[in-house]
Amino acid sequence: MTAVSDRAEADRAASDRAASERVAAEAREGERKDDTKPTKLEQLRARYPWLDHLVRAGARYTDHHGDHYAAAITFFSILSLVPLLMIAFAIAGYVLFFNPNLLNEIRDAINAALPPNMADTINPIIDQAIAQRNTVAAFGLLAALYSGIGWMTNLREALSEQWAQSPEPPALPKRLLFDLTALLGLGIALVGSFAITGAASGFAADVLGFVGLADQGWAQVLLRLLGALLGLTANFLVFLWVIARLPRQHTPIRSAVKAAALGAVGFEILKQVMTVYLNAVTNSPSGAVFGSLLGLLVFINFVSRFILFVTAWAATTKGVEKEAPVPIPAPAVIRPEVVVRCGPNTATTAGLLGMGAVTALLGLRALGRRR
Description:
The chain is mainly alpha-helical. It has two domains: 2-37; 49-315, no CATH class. 80% of the residues lie in helices and 0% in strands. It has helices spanning 2-36, 40-47, 49-63, 66-79, 81-97, 100-113, 116-131, 133-162, 172-210, 217-245, 257-281, 285-315, 346-370. The protein is elongated and about 140 Å long.
């Protein structure tokens, strides 16, 4: 009877242990399920393809050093302002030299606005600036060429990085020639797009005036819409060329169409935001002195980042996305290692100690028998 009760008690204990193990296993399984459950962001990315594309573009921009390249582009952009100002002063000198009437009007305006003693100081400076127009133009062109090529080189390298391109760097003369050609092409594209936009808007205004609708409110609204549409079209064409043709290796135009449309709209929004920002900055006395320069610096940096992000957006489009090539690891070098020990190892030491102990015991035993 006692054996039966002991066996039943053992069975209940075994059953309790099995139940405890089953509960623990279920708890561990639940924890694993909780660990593998997708996060809220992953669920949203799976539900909205545009959000997934946005996250992948942001990751591409960050992983491929977008901020660093944008800083380099901003630096060379600011560096290019000085030679551009020199060229502008030289052009003004040429205009005043070939238009004496305009020069006399400027001198009369200066003489009327300044005290007599200051006018005698300013007029020789104007004459000297006009006389040195050739020197200013030459130095300005050389400096603009240097800074412009540096700007274009950084821009092309940044765009190539966002496309995960690793082309072999061309020779220095060839690279300078290609970058200079790309710089001239981009300048022509920008001037042409803005010129076409301005000419078309002016032509539309002339047409409205000719038909007698220039004073109509709805006609003015249509004219503004036409100007905005033409501006978006010009921005779209420029972004399309920058994204698809400025990288070291040209990419298909179709892969950059959506990104160029996004860039055109975003660039217009960015311009409006920066206009509000500049108006807010330049209201203070200190902002009136440094606000324009700081605002220009911030605007160029944001535009550089935006261009690189739009390029990352184009590079992460489904069917176009290409990861950077994985570098081939260096060949393995096998170096044989020879370890020389100056004494016995652990096993030998243990054996020697054991043999010594046995020998000592045998000696003690023999000595005891002899006694």
